[in-house]
Design a protein that fits this description.
Blueprint: H1 11-21, H2 25-39, H3 55-74, H4 79-88, H5 93-116, E1 123-133, E2 146-155, E3 165-169, H6 171-201
Helix pairs in contact: 1-3, 2-3, 2-5, 3-5, 3-6, 4-5
């Protein structure tokens, strides 16, 4: 299933994609090439030192390129979706097509590596919920109680439907779940920014 939303990351990655698209031609070709080669285990990141470019812009462009490649491979996206995502971030149609073609040629190998390293886990692709209102019960304290039934639809690493997760919760428990998910997202963003700063400092 390659119709899932292609979420390449937050604002930082989006800016990085724009930087990538604006690189001089030699730097553009080398950064894209290295992004694929490093992910496929055919090159090391220190090869980036060969690229004549401001280190901050270089890291930003490289990290964003790898983010696009990994997300696309993870959700089994086709090259057209990759090309569309890049053009949405102001990458020229010619460069977006070059990137998408390179991805298409390596997609199978990338997904094989992801599955072998355990990086492709079952993931949530949709959420269904229903609110129930208790109007009759043997327990008086449950009268008028509101509960939510939530079903998380998942897919395995190959895009096949996996076991759904269904649970019931109160409004307070649902609010707590949403809070914790937002907190996890914030922590992830902070961690990503910290890693980017460390890379920029090298």
């Amino acid at each position: 299933n390659n119709k899932r939303t292609m979420d390449v990351g937050g604002e930082e990655v989006g800016k990085g994609i724009e930087v990538l698209g604006q690189l001089p031609e030699p730097a553009w070709r080398r950064v894209v090439q290295l992004a694929f080669e490093v992910l496929l285990g055919r090159a090391q990141e220190h090869s980036l030192l060969e690229v004549s470019l401001d280190p901050v812009l270089l890291k930003q462009a490289y990290n964003s390129a790898t983010s696009v490649i990994l997300e696309a491979a993870k959700i089994n996206a086709d090259p057209v979706r990759v090309q569309t995502k890049l053009t949405e971030h102001n990458v020229s149609s010619e460069r977006a097509q070059q990137f998408a073609t390179a991805y298409g040629e390596r997609k199978g190998a990338l997904r094989e590596i992801l599955s072998r390293t355990g990086s492709v886990f079952p993931h949530v692709v949709d959420v269904n919920w229903r609110m129930d209102y208790v109007v009759k019960s043997n327990r008086v304290e449950r009268m008028g109680e509101v509960s939510y039934n939530v079903t998380l639809k998942t897919e395995d690493g190959n895009g096949n439907p996996a076991k759904n997760v269904t649970f019931a919760c109160s409004l307070e428990e649902l609010q707590e779940l949403v809070y914790r998910l937002r907190d996890a997202t914030a922590q992830y963003d902070n961690h990503l920014k910290a890693i980017t700063k460390q890379l920029d400092a090298k």
